């Protein structure tokens, strides 16, 4: 639980003495695993006075302090402390400090911006009509703008000392009043409702028993799919290395509390797809370095989404480095295989300076040539066919996996009848193709030969259907595959007709059932399967782009000696430009196409992301109680 399926949630009802409410809310913030909800059981009681007013004030100060932080470009960090004696004292201290920054810094920043706009406006007016009064006015506002600018520069160090701490205090108090806005009160009691992970409830009970003995009561309610009107929030306990890939699943939305988490699958497939389309160790290292700088920048700006994107890019580029090592590619062919890879039939060619020190030997690279059908160790024709088979095999296996997960989600959402009508027909159709490509594993050493043989048999069976299906094992398997496709399409057509006749008139149902249940699945089967060939196409494009620039470098140096080419300034410039183009163009395309394959070809088969995220209220500072 927590990795593929959501963490168990429970709705809790907290009842306490009204005198303990202020400190109790702060304790809940420090606890950090409670999401407040609109009350169900205590909704008839009044809200706590002035909550919205204080929340508005805090939000306004938070916005203005954030403007100051952005103006100076101060990196974010977690720091600060609140000494909580009473809510009144904490607010007075924070508001006084915030007001000082607003008057001394924020208002000056606003004035500077207004003056800059006025300066631009005045320059435009002077271009149309050069009047002495306007020149005097321009000198005046330029002097004022310079004075304010110098003032802001001089106080920068003083601002940096404590403003992030103040910002964290404001964020904490913003969460404090968000909890308070959901609470209710009576003359003697305080009521609060919300969601907590089941595994965290004992810790909260321990805190309350220790700090508020006999003053607090917690009632628990486990969610029921069919009895609860609202859906519980969704939270997953993912390992740190998988968390960045939540941003990919997040494009669909938040998975329902009752559904499978697609993040784990995306964390496996996205880097693999990216690396197969971007197979070069040197370019992978550059992208990895870029992702590290991007991550540091995002942390300075406190931009979590950009940080996740940089981590996804970093993990994917690391896998590109690994695949590039196995196929012996480092900034193109010259540094390892040298001119011998560019002109293999010319005896005067030489190998690159890294040829003998590269960690992966040529013998290993030649055995892996079926993955990438180019380079010094590949067979151009057969390697291309082998790679197409591998790409399609990867595609259909992942699509069948996505469809299987879709069966689980539909079963939990709508029951067995919906599975039989919506998912099983597509599962049968995809299974028919999987059978063909798995047949090759009957002889693992000759997998590609066996696969090509059964695909040839499939063509024969289609052209001579339904005659002579028992001439050979390949013909029989192909015949079964064709029958499964036909059965799956007819089944899908009937299922759509069955659904449509209950929602629309019969006249239109037959034609729509054919289009949606027969024609569309057949089209998707072909397009989705062929779509994975882009893994091969973009990998080839990356290689041959670098191959072309390496060849230009060879012609520029006018020599077959690899080392002479690499030290020639013009040749080296050509190689650098080629790699920069490959990194920029092919890197972007690989990232975009990996995203598309995951979201459309894979995620579209099972993602039902109509849930809501678990967003617990937390404290951004250390809290101590006086």
Model description:
- The structure is a single chain.
- The chain has helices at 21-31, 51-72, 87-128, 132-154, 156-182, 201-211, 246-252, 263-277, 281-300, 304-326, 339-342, 362-367, 380-414, 416-439, 447-464, 473-500, 506-531, 534-557, 562-567, 569-602; strands spanning 9-17, 34-36, 81-84, 184-185, 189-197, 216-221, 622-625.
- The protein is built from 20 helices and seven strands.
- Strands 1, 2, 4, 5 and 6 form a five-stranded antiparallel sheet that branches. The protein has a two-stranded parallel sheet with strand order 3-7.
- By secondary structure, the protein is mainly alpha-helical.
- Strand 4 (184-185) and strand 5 form a beta hairpin.
- Helices cover 65% and strands 6% of the residues.
- Helix 8 packs antiparallel against helix 20.
- The model has no long low-confidence stretch (mean pLDDT 86).
- The two termini are 39 Å apart.
- It is globular.
- 36% of the residues are buried.
**What would the average pLDDT be, to the nearest integer?**
86
Our count of helices gives 20
Question: Overall 3D geometry?
Answer: globular
Largest sheet: 5 strands, antiparallel
Content-based structural category: mainly alpha
- Level of helix content? 55-70%
Radius of gyration: 32 Å
Helix-strand topology string? EHEHEHHHEEHEHHHHHHHHHHHHHHE
Number of strands: 7
C-alpha termini separation: 39 Å
Low-pLDDT regions = none
User: Beta-strand level of the residues, as a percent range?
Assistant: 5-15%
């Amino acid at each position: 639980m927590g990795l593929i399926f959501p963490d168990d949630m429970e709705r809790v009802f907290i009842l306490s003495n009204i005198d303990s409410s202020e400190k109790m809310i702060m304790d809940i913030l420090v606890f950090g695993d409670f999401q407040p909800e609109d009350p169900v059981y205590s909704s008839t009681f009044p809200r706590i006075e002035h909550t919205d007013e204080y929340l508005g004030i805090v939000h306004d100060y938070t916005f203005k302090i954030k403007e100051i932080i952005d103006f100076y470009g101060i990196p974010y960090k977690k720091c600060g402390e609140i000494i909580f004696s009473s809510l009144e004292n904490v607010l007075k201290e924070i508001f006084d400090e915030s007001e000082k920054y607003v008057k001394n810094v924020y208002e000056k920043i606003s004035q500077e911006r207004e003056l800059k706009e006025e300066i631009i406006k005045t320059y435009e007016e002077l271009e149309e009509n050069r009047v002495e009064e306007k020149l005097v006015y321009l000198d005046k506002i330029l002097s004022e703008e310079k004075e304010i600018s110098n003032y802001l520069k001089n106080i920068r160090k003083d601002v940096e000392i404590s403003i992030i701490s103040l910002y964290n205090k404001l964020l904490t108090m913003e969460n404090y009043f968000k909890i308070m806005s959901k609470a209710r009160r009576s003359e003697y009691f305080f009521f609060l409702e919300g969601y907590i992970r089941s595994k965290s409830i004992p810790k909260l009970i321990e805190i309350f028993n220790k700090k508020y003995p006999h003053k607090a009561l917690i009632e628990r309610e486990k969610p029921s799919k069919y009895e609860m009107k609202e859906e519980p929030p969704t939270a997953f306990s993912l390992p740190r290395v998988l968390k960045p890939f939540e941003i990919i699943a997040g494009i669909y939305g938040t998975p329902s509390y009752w559904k499978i988490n697609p993040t784990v699958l995306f964390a496996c497939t996205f880097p693999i797809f990216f690396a197969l389309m971007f197979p070069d160790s040197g370019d992978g290292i550059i992208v990895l370095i870029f992702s590290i700088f991007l991550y540091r920048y995002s942390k300075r700006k406190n931009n979590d989404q950009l940080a996740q994107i940089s981590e996804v890019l970093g993990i994917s580029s690391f896998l590109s480095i690994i695949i590039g090592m196995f196929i012996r590619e480092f900034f193109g062919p010259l540094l390892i295989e040298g001119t011998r890879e560019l002109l293999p039939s010319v005896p005067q060619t030489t190998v690159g300076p890294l040829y003998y020190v590269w960690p992966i030997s040529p013998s290993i690279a030649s055995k892996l040539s079926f993955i990438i059908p180019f380079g010094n160790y590949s067979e151009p024709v057969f390697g291309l066919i082998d790679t197409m088979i591998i790409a399609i095999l990867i595609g259909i296996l992942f699509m069948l996996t996505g469809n299987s997960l879709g069966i689980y989600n539909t079963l939990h959402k709508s029951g067995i009848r919906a599975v039989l009508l919506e998912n099983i027909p597509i599962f049968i159709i995809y299974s028919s193709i999987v059978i063909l490509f798995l047949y090759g594993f009957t002889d693992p050493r000759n997998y590609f030969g066996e696969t090509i043989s059964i695909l040839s048999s499939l063509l024969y069976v289609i052209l001579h259907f339904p005659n002579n299906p028992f001439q050979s094992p390949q013909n029989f398997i192909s015949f079964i595959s064709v029958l499964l496709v036909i059965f799956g399409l007819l089944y899908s057509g009937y299922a759509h007709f069955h659904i449509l006749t209950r929602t629309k008139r019969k006249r239109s149902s037959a034609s729509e059932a054919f289009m949606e249940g027969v024609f569309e699945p057949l089209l998707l089967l072909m397009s989705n399967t062929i779509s994975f060939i882009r893994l091969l196409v973009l990998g080839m494009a990356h290689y041959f782009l670098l191959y072309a620039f390496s060849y230009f470098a060879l012609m520029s140096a006018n020599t077959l000696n690899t080392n002479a080419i690499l030290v020639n300034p013009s040749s080296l410039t050509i190689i650098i430009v080629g790699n920069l183009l490959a990194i920029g163009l092919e890197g972007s395309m690989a990232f975009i196409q990996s995203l598309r394959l995951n979201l459309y070809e894979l995620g579209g088969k099972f993602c039902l992301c109509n849930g809501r995220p678990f967003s617990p209220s937390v404290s951004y500072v250390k809290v101590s109680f006086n």
